[in-house]
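Input.
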Amino acid sequence: MLPRHRPKKLSLGPLEAEILEILWDLGSASTRQIHERILADPNRELAYASVTTVLQRLSQKGWVSCERRTDAEGRPLPMLWRPCLSRQEAASLRAFDHLQQFLAVGDPDTVAAFADSLDQASVSQLQAIAERLRAAREARRDPQ
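Output.
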């Protein structure tokens, strides 16, 4: 099932994808924690401001959210960044998007030629997907 939340833009640049992977690994993190994680690789150089810019871009695209926090006395604490989707949800959205692009070709002969070239394992997987789809649609029609 596709997640309810869908980023405004699915495409990610390499640094955006790397930062999102870090957030998935950590669950949530401050800009400093993300920056330090990237710089843990001794061969990397990256300005703190670049991490901030990429996080803001990921937020604008709908991939991450930011929580502004304060301590007990109301003083600001570092902002905490969180992914809006799980790794699995993101993979589902990307797969769905790729499938939609493929089907948008619109030429049944092209789609059929592609399907005809699949190996047996791929055909079995497509049949399993079709069976799950039938079951899900049937369950929606007959909630019991």
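The helical segments are 14-26, 31-39, 48-61, 87-103, 108-116, 120-141.
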